[in-house]
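agent> step 3/5: call structure_predict on target 'Transposase' (Catenibacterium mitsuokai).
agent> reason: downstream docking stage needs a structural representation; sequence fetched in step 2, passing through unchanged.
tool.input:
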Amino acid sequence: NNEFLPSHPEYSWIKEAYSKSVTQAVNNGQTAFKRFFNHKSAFPKFKKKGRSDVKMYFVRNNPKDCLCERHRIKIPSLGWVRVKEKGYIPTTKDGYVIKSGHVSIKADRYYVSVLVEIPDNRIASHSSKGIGIDLGLKDFAIVSNG
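tool.output (status=ok):
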């Protein structure tokens, strides 16, 4: 991803970040300019390093990078982080896979947003057999198969 990295020594700090994070930031800028030129939004505002909301992107490169348990999530550069509200992020032990996400800060609170791949749950094949149900007053329900 050297196409996104400037060669000037003043910007050498960009090379310390994950390449996928830099790519995601460039893609966000590209989307903002496309929306501007298609007259869907205003001109993108420059977000200065110290004055804008902090965002950190993370991507799952190998299976042990991003994991989620009931009350905590593992972020590649931060390690295990406790989650205040349990149950909103699907856990990896249930078969869900975290693909990527980002951490942001607003009003001195941190928020995590993740992209989760849901396993393919196949519906059982339909059989050609039918069933009859008789609803009555004396007996609530009588089915034809017993």
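agent> step 4/5: record observation. The CA atoms of residues 104 and 110 lie 6 Å apart.
agent> proceeding.
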